[in-house]
Write a structure and sequence with these properties.
single chain; flat; mainly alpha; 6 helices
Amino acid sequence: MAPLQAFVCKSTLLRCCIVGIVVTTITTVTRIYVRIKKQRRLHEDDFVLFTAVAFYFALAILYIVDLPYLYRFLDFASGKAPFHPSLLETYDHMMRISFAVTALFWVVLWTVKLSLLLFFRRVLRVTPLETVKIMWWFVLALTIATFIGCLVSEFSSCNELKDFTTLGKRSTTVVPSMFWLMNVATGKCISPQEQRYQIISLYYSFGADVLTELASKW
């Protein structure tokens, strides 16, 4: 089994997270200022976008919290650090946070989509074409349905939800290695059926993202 390598160093990834938070904060404050200055009020799409920003901050903070666990595990997986029994707990923490980060990612992305749809609805209020308004409702329904599908596909990737973070059987007769840690120590969510569900969830979520983007531009 080939060792895992970190393609981006920990400090670089941390700086990217911080830059993302700073840029998002500046952009959000600027949007509030411009809306109040020019229109004297905030609209429903603004409040939905602010909700997305709040979820994004939670996502970024969780990712920063996850970095020590992630890179400690990668140091072992790449052969830079020896095995230590505490790696089991490190892997457990990493998977718990990763699960939450994935769910938050879809929440942020689809909340932004909803904000854009609400903005388009304000624009479409002046159009006399009923077909366009019907299409807006269709895209809204598609967006909501695909979002629910993303969450359902993630939560159903394992037969039992607790298997995402519950450690399975541990073996003291096997020499600790990357393969041992991921397959013997965890021992959950690795059946052929569950792996197939995980692949389906991955392709579905990305496909749903592309589909809703195309539908909104149609």
